[in-house]
Amino acid sequence: MEENLMTDIVSVLNLINYGFVLIFGIIVSFYFAGIQWEDNKRLFILTTVLFVLFQALFYVLLGENVLFKCYPVLIHIPLILIIRYICHQNIYISFIAVMSAYLMCTPRKWFGTLAKYIFPEIPVISDVVTIVITIPLLIVVIKYISPYIIKLKEESKNIISMFFLLPLTYYILEYALTVYTNLLYTGKAVIIEFMDSFIVVLYFFLSIVTLSMSNKKNTAERENIILSAAAAQAEKEISQLTDYQKQAAIYRHDLRHHMNFIQSCLAGNNTQQALEYINEINNNLDNTRITRYCSNEAINLILSSYINKAHDADISTQISVTATNFSSYRITDLCSLLANALENAINSCIKQCDNAVSKDNKRLITIKLFEKNNKICINIANTYFKEPRFHNQIPVTDEPDHGIGVRSIISVIEKYNGIYAFFTKDGTFYFQACI
Q1: How many Cβ atoms sit within 10 Å of the Cβ of residue 246?
Q2: Nearest to 242, CA basis, from 298, 326, 283
């Protein structure tokens, strides 16, 4: 009689445990997917009631053993579909939410197993502890774990895929080794060593992926800093050149006053003062030689500034600008790209030794800006004396505080998903880009 009563109690507790784990899994799945009780009470209640009824029906029709083995098809997949199509969540998030919720059921079982190990004489202790621990564990998961899982929505697909791997792996191993077989409980050396090896391999795989992603993130942050600094510098140069242009307009407007001042200096035999004043005006006017190459004033300012620098260094230039539509780009980005490329070209030409400069080998910079397939193409070529070094088809240098310009150029091009190339041919260095 007592044995029958104990059997009935165990069966009832087993059913209650099934109900608790189902409710626990549904609630945790919703919270991991960012679906909270306060805004979705009806969804929580309807889903829980329907799944409890379906589980009870399947339990009666199929039996406990078959129900347990069919759980993925009868419970997990429908829950994933609800989160994906009714709650309109990302498919990756839907899978991660349900499989992570399944993973979080493990501590429940462990507490029950621990209690049974400590009190083996109490047959119902495992189910009782598992049921009792459900509510506290649910609170802990909702309050302290779900906020971090929810943030996966804001991450890239690479990070989401990495987090998807762990619960998926656990899910497959759990069903393969404990549900569809009992290999895990046989204690065979091959299974134990497999689990050890698998954990080690998974650890190193996740470590490599994490470090790789961290490295890419750090590289992106460095490039963003370079890009921001280059844009700020370009903006500063444009502002400075604009000020020079305004100053030149003022000088031209006040030409009569300047002539009167110089005349008064000469009349008073203050020749030195007159010469200094003339030199000051000339220097300021030299800084304002602006040539109109295109419809964009900022690009005209940058091109004029660096071409003037090239001419001051006895470097010949050939320039052709046929591009007209710059509306798809931040002008500071384009100016930064041009400024860095032209500065590198000028520096390379300046380094040409005097004995290397001849009629057949002169300092020359060629600049072309044109449009092709709704993209802006930039071709800049310059002569050089010392053969450039390349690493992964990108020019590199050992000189301190150099090389930043090239990284800045590449950052701008990659920002607009463009393509680029650096190469040399017949004593000429070529930079080509299309953005």
Answers
A1: 11
A2: 298
Segments in the chain below pLDDT 70: 1-6, 196, 218-264, 267-268, 281-289, 353-361, 400-403
Please give the pLDDT value at position 321.
Answer: 92
Please state, rounded to an integer, the average pLDDT across all residues of the chain: 81
Strand 364-372: give its sheet, edge to edge.
Answer: 316-321, 364-372, 375-383, 428-434, 419-425
Query: Which run of H or of E encompasses 246?
Result: helix 189-253
Cβ neighbours of residue 37 closer than 8 Å, sequence gap 6 or more:
27, 30, 44
Task: For residue 380, give the 3-state DSSP assignment.
Answer: strand
Q: Residue 54 gets which letter from DSSP?
A: H
Residues 338, 233: Cα–Cα separation, whole Å: 12
DSSP tag of 349: H
Amino acid in the structure at residue 269: N
CB atoms within 10 A of CB 174: 16
- Judging by DSSP bridges, how do beta strands 389-391 and 375-383 pair with one another? unpaired
Spatial separation of the C-alpha atoms in residues 174 and 102, rounded to whole Å: 10
Express each pLDDT in 79-91 by its tens digit.
Answer: 999 999 999 898 8
| Per-residue pLDDT, 226 | 61
DSSP H or E stretch at residue 390:
strand 389-391
Nearest to 93 by CA among 141, 26, 161: 161
